[in-house]
Amino acid sequence: MCLFAFFLTAALYFTISVEVFKARLHDTPENLNFASGQKVTVLKIIDGDEISVKMNNSQFIVRILGISSYEPAVNDPVLENVAKETMRYLEKTILNYDVELVFEKFQQDKDKRVLAYVYYDGTDIGLSMIQNGLSIVYTRYPFPRIEEYLHIERIAVREKKGLWGVPAAAGRAVMLKNLWKKGKVR
User: In 10 A of CB 79, how many CB atoms?
Assistant: First the structure.
């Protein structure tokens, strides 16, 4: 019982710490607006679809447009491994590098995150993550490249790449997509 209480306390502490950290990062500068193609430096990988970036003297969060990834703090060892692999990929690929933020129109979501495709060295990072089975196409809200992303995802599913080769993760992805279609989950 004591061990259970310890793990419960540790999990609660970790969850609260992450939420406090994310809330501080959401202190987006007022009047933030810039043109597509802006270069920013990636300061931190928050999770599989959010990054903290710096542009000049401003720091803000970018929600990578068109993808959804499992949370690293998920309480499921199988999904946790998939989430950690996604984090490792982003850390290896873009952490501490300059990336380009691309969008049709500057937008922020309700949490003041900038919604953008992220490019590094000419590569669409979100699309690359879909291609490697590290993320799923976020079909809850339409976005201009959805058909291209879905086409690449179908190939990843067929080839059982990344999460699509892990039955529990693939099943959860299909369930999420069904809930998004019904408008029941964000």
Answer: 19
State CA 109 to chain mean position distance: 14
pTM of the full predicted structure? 0.83
Domain range annotation of the chain: 2-132
Cα R_g (the chain), whole angstroms: 17
Q: What is the CATH number of domain 2-132?
A: 2.40.50.90
Q: Give the number of other Cβ atoms within 10 Å of residue 7's Cβ.
A: 9
Alpha-carbon gap, residue 82 to 85, rounded angstroms: 5
The tens-digit pLDDT sequence of the chain (186 residues) is 655 444 445 454 555 555 545 544 445 566 789 999 999 999 999 999 999 999 999 999 999 999 999 988 878 888 889 999 999 999 999 999 999 999 999 999 999 999 999 999 999 999 999 999 999 999 999 999 999 999 999 999 999 999 999 999 999 999 999 999 998 776
